[in-house]
Design goal:
The complex is a heterodimer. Chain A is an alpha/beta fold. Chain A contains 11 helices and 14 strands. Chain B folds into 2 domains: 64 residues, Arc Repressor Mutant, subunit A (Orthogonal Bundle), CATH 1.10.10.10; 43 residues. The chains are: A alpha/beta, B mainly alpha.
């Protein structure tokens, strides 16, 4: 299968922050979640993919095409949903569409109308009168109406209530019925990803911590808990980030099966959430 | 066909699907040549990732429970004799458990149960 998005040794330096040669790729037919704390480089990466920022090094290819050399070509293949609204607030949904549609070669008004109906979006309401959830759905309708192959979303779920978020997830898994599409979305609400993402790429401080199948991540990482006296220096070597308290300790391990074999019943091993994995990787090790 | 996924269970989600589809086949709730949902439909319906359903189907296929015909879909495989026998054995076992339970509830002892079974076996 061919990669729909391929980022290779991407670099970008700002004052006080830099992306350090990050690489990852997404195949057609899958959803990749892009996670990391605020300021880790998620939005910078997405802006570089969209060529809204100038990169300092590395390559980005969408559907096998370079994102600078074939910019127009690939922008027709990308549907983009941004967390903030960049539409004219005083226009109605119908008027805004009239402005956006001509930019796309493959604009399909039939499917736009269909999405408006499915998402229950009112044609003649002004953008500023739409709720946050509705605005996101409007962005999504626009992104989906020009036969995009790759959907890129920057924090699409931030600021949305759980009901709208789960609606969005349903829409995404419905889109994925077509195995020629790909979805790349950044979020810090990882519970959304835990359900539908196929791959998870975790970025922290401008570096990729891991980029792997989500199942492998949640099945291999383990949250180890135990009494303080079972915290040997041997065990400590396996821990990524740790928290000690008066009554015991808690830490993350990369290979829970190995730790289970080595330490057996002296510790309790639980399945961590993506949130917990993120937390332990970003927290500085504490000692008491 | 019912598949119930627990997100909090320690058992990986793909393994939960494998186990439940196997049970459905064993109990005869899905039969030979029956069309199964595609990996993408299953993922959408269960709200899980496509990779998970793909892995489950791959495992079931490896163990011979299902077959994928390119361009047509995934079907319940023709069972081999051993497998079918296993299914039947399981049914017998379940019925026997029922009988034992019913017997125990009226304090019927083992010898009495065996005696009853012997008579019935010869009669039928």
């Amino acid at each position: 299968m061919s990669a729909i998005l391929e980022v290779c040794s991407l670099q970008k330096s700002f004052q006080g922050f830099s992306l350090k040669e990050i690489s990852f790729s997404l195949e057609r037919g899958y959803i990749m979640g892009f996670i990391g704390p605020n300021g880790a480089g998620k939005s910078t990466t997405i802006k570089l993919i969209m060529n809204l920022l100038k990169r300092n090094g590395g390559t980005i290819a969408v559907c096998g095409l370079d994102n600078l050399r074939s910019e127009k070509e690939i922008k027709n293949k990308i549907g983009f949903v941004y967390d903030e609204n960049f539409y004219y607030e005083d226009l109605t949904v119908a008027q805004m569409k009239m402005i956006i549609a001509p930019f796309y070669r493959n604009w399909d008004d039939g499917s736009f109308q269909k999405y408006l109906r499915n998402f229950a979006l009112p044609m003649h309401k002004k953008i500023k009168e739409l709720s946050r959830g509705m605005r996101m759905k409007f962005s999504l309708a626009v992104a989906l109406s020009h036969h995009a192959e790759l959907l890129i979303m920057d924090e699409p779920t931030s600021g949305l209530d759980p009901v709208i978020r789960s609606e969005l997830l349903e829409i995404l898994s419905w889109i994925m019925q077509d195995d020629r599409q790909g979805i790349f979305f950044s979020t810090h609400i990882t519970s959304d990803l835990e359900k539908i993402a196929d791959f998870v790429t975790f970025i922290n401080d401008g570096r990729i911590v891991f980029s792997a199948a989500k199942d492998d991540v949640v099945d291999n990482f383990g949250l180890v808990k135990g009494a303080r006296d079972s915290l040997s220096s041997d065990l400590k070597k396996h821990l990524i980030g740790m928290r000690e308290n008066q009554f015991g300790f808690e830490g993350l391990v990369k290979d829970k099966h190995l730790v289970k074999r080595l330490f057996r019943d002296s510790v309790v091993i639980e399945k961590p959430s993506l949130d917990e994995i993120m937390l332990y990787f970003t927290r500085r090790p504490q000692s008491v | 066909m019912n598949i119930i996924i627990s997100n909090s269970a320690d058992e990986p989600i793909y393994a939960q699907i494998v186990r439940q589809i196997k049970n459905l086949v064993m109990r005869g709730e899905i039969v030979e040549d029956e069309l199964l949902p595609s990996i993408r439909t299953l993922a959408k319906e269960l709200q899980i990732s496509v990779i998970t359903t793909k892995r489950a189907y791959e495992e079931l296929e490896r163990e011979g429970y299902i077959v994928t015909v390119p361009g047509k879909g995934t079907f319940v495989a023709a069972h081999n004799k051993e497998l079918l026998r296993e299914v039947q054995l399981k049914i017998v076992e379940e019925k026997l458990v029922e009988a034992v339970d019913a017997g125990k509830s009226i304090e019927l002892d083992f010898a009495a149960l065996v005696g009853m079974l012997k008579v019935l076996y010869e009669e039928v």
